[in-house]
Amino acid sequence: MFPFVSSFLTLVSVFAAPPRTQIVEGDPALFCEMPSLVFLKIYRTFLMGYRMCGGTLISPSYVVTAAHCLEGLIDYIEVNVGSLNKHETVQNVTSTINFRHENYTRSKYLIENDIGLLKLEKPVKNVECVSQMDMAAKDDVFDNKTCIIAGWGRLGLKESHSDVLQKAFVPVVPIDECRNKSSLAISDGFICAGDYIPGGASICKGDSGGPLICPHGNNMVLAGVISYGLDCSREASLFTSIAYYRDWIDNIMNE
Fold it and tell me: Cα–Cα distance between 118 and 238 in angstroms, integer?
């Protein structure tokens, strides 16, 4: 397949239609297993309903997500914290201030700088099943490690969705190897994770903005943000690297 055609299919598969819900070939997350993961309802100006994305709580007042979740004019975002079921609420807070990376771009062929932050109107309380996730440091590398993806995205490209958070394990592929194997166009600032077995564990529509969680020493850290893939399980997927954008994140949070 020609590179431009494959890249076009990639972007269509990830961004076409408002996201739904569930990780491909995953399992339901256990009680309190993902205390930093949040479900986002994004209400946009002049549009009925809301768009759904995932995000990760990185401080009591900030959530990191994908920039493409923040496209368009946004009225406000509901942030559901601490619940495995997207229809149940442990804490529900609102964000009207969001930061999309100033150099974010998305075309038929390429996505760049796909990262954004939400500032919450009030800090989240650390209660049962709610806590912040440690982020990868600036120079951290996760090649060949087995990591966790999680979200409320579809089970497959044409599958139905679930109300319950799903998780799956995926290997991180060195980015040069990924570029050689992949039919996707890949810019700097991404982590590649997954396998090249059709039908394997993968992200899908609705998982955007959710986490790639990787081992680092004795801890688990937020290594990436779910960005895009090809038809929900045809090959490895791409995650915006937290390490690559750590300075950008810290600068906004410290303003």
Answer: 21
Catalytic position from the list 7, 36, 202, 208: 208
- Dist. CA 242–CA 138, nearest whole Å: 8
Does 208 qualify as catalytic in the annotation?
yes
Based on the number of CB atoms within 10 Å of its own CB, is 128 exposed (0-12), middle (13-18) or buried (19 or more)? exposed
Give the domain ranges of the chain. Answer: 37-131+248-254, 133-243
Whole-angstrom distance, CA of residue 115 vs CA of residue 111: 11
CATH class of 133-243: mainly beta
161 is a catalytic site residue: no
- Structure-block tokens of residue 209: 């903005």
Residue-wise pLDDT tens for the chain (255 aa)? 323 222 323 333 343 333 333 466 678 899 999 999 999 999 998 888 899 999 999 999 999 999 999 999 999 999 999 999 998 888 999 999 999 999 999 987 789 999 999 999 999 998 889 999 999 999 999 999 999 999 998 756 666 667 899 999 999 999 999 999 888 889 999 999 998 777 678 888 889 999 999 999 999 999 999 999 877 767 889 999 999 999 999 999 998
Q: Residues 114, 162, 182, 227: which is the catalytic one?
A: 114
Q: Catalytic annotation on 13? A: no
Fold of 37-131+248-254: Thrombin, subunit H (2.40.10)
Write out the H or E segment, with its range, that includes residue 99: strand 97-100
What does the radius of gyration of the chain's CA atoms come to, in whole angstroms? 16
